[in-house]
UniProtKB/TrEMBL annotation, chains A, B:
Molecular function via GO: DNA-binding transcription factor activity; transcription cis-regulatory region binding; zinc ion binding
Biological source species: Bellilinea caldifistulae
UniProt record similarity statement: Belongs to the Fur family.
Binding site residues for Zn(2+): 98, 101, 138, 141
Lineage top rank: taxon: Bacteria
Name by which UniProt lists this protein: Transcriptional repressor
InterPro entries: FUR, Fur_C, WH-like_DNA-bd_sf, WH_DNA-bd_sf
Cofactor annotation comment: Binds 1 zinc ion per subunit.
UniProt entry keywords in alphabetical sequence: DNA-binding, Metal-binding, Repressor, Transcription, Transcription regulation, Zinc
Gene Ontology terms describing biological process: negative regulation of DNA-templated transcription; regulation of secondary metabolite biosynthetic process
Length: 146, 146
DNA sequence: CTTCCTGCAAAGTCTTTGCAGCACC
DNA sequence: GGTGCTGCAAAGACTTTGCAGGAAG
């Protein structure tokens, strides 16, 4: 499903729940859905402002809350300079966080489910989601300075 | 190594680095080292105050920073009501976070290293640490309300 | 028209910082 | 005694909230 298709789907679901479709909301949704770089709220806000200057940070926050509720965005890493969000792959998956440049990459090709399942079995927890973040230095930063 | 032994070891290392050993610091260290429940800074502060009322929150924060630097404490879950800390098992390990009662349990008996290693290999990252948090409902809360 | 949404500003939380005086070494 | 530490209070970063006016349905 591409970004525009998802956008239409989400807007439809919002309407069904009695929510409205304002230009700000659409712009914010589009910015989130198309962002592949795990942006902060601040970053989304700035992107939206480029195309649609009449938007406030508060509205972006309110929209994130909505998207989180709908499961269309996940929050990752509550660390430096604010939480970051992933609406591009809203299913839980590993992230690789570069402590040098702050960039966040998606961890791909490794199945985490077995570990999650094992922990769940061991603990009698009813696990609903997980977060796996690896911290380190990305290839680019390694090349730059050893 | 038990708590008191670790305490002595840490104090020794602090002194070697030109740091001092004040009653507050010792009390805070002891509270952190003996806490098995992943407390917040606020909780540690309250515990220290019981035995040693002349302590400020700022000092607890400063001491956490010191302990983090020394690798004697790890920060887990920057979620609701402040970061929580684990000085009892300061090596990275999975945590099971109950979204109902807020309790944090240690995930035991499952080796996460292979997954971390696989992700590291795949990504050309130089991974230094990781964080694996599972969110769900603990056994106690399940029993309580389905 | 009604209800939800927006934007502003204020408040709230958690954490950090500046600084004067005190206490460890 | 010198330097680091403490406690206070203020500042800071991020996020949430209250509210009046405006807009979607």
């Amino acid at each position: 499903m591409d970004t525009e298709e998802r956008l239409r789907d989400i807007l439809q679901r919002l309407q069904k729940d009695g929510h409205r479709m304002t230009p700000q909301r659409v712009a914010i949704l589009r910015a989130f859905l198309s962002a592949q770089d795990h942006p902060t709220v601040e970053q989304v806000y700035r992107r939206v402002c480029r195309d649609f200057p009449m938007t406030s940070l508060a509205t972006v926050y309110k929209t994130v809350a909505l998207l989180k509720e709908m499961g269309e965005v996940i929050e990752i890493s509550g660390d430096l300079q604010g939480s970051r969000y992933d609406a591009f792959h809203p299913e839980p998956h590993p992230h690789l966080i570069c402590t040098r440049c702050g960039q966040i990459y998606d961890g791909e090709g490794v199945d985490v489910q077995p570990v999650v399942a094992a922990l769940q079995a061991q603990s009698a927890f009813q696990v609903s989601t997980y977060r796996l973040d690896l911290y380190g230095v990305c290839a680019a930063c390694q090349a730059q300075s050893g």
